[in-house]
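Researcher: Good morning. I'm working through a list of sequences from a screen, and I'd like to move beyond sequence-only analysis. For each chain I'm collecting a predicted structure so we can compare shapes side by side. This is the next one on the list. No need for commentary yet; just the structure.
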Amino acid sequence: MQHTVSYDEGLLKALKDPEEARAYLEVALDECEASGEIDGLLLALRDVAQAQGGVGALAERSGLNREHLYRVLSSRSKPKIDNLMAIVSALGFRLRLDFAEL
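Model: Good morning. Structure tokens for this chain:
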């Protein structure tokens, strides 16, 4: 019998690689920009956080309270830019601006 890995396990393993995590977050950010919906981006941030040691570890690195961080990353939340910047930075990334066609 062949052993298989669940989708979630495979995803979290892949997201331990910073390049994979960056690409995953870029796609989520592009989708957020296109749709105006932030839920996919919050899910992607949660996934990368889980791959990098969990929300508790992210809370320590970001300086945000763990319970507050869970609320910020929930799909019921619209995070403030300062919280979003703290999370992205604690995950080892930064947001950059690029020109868009108008």
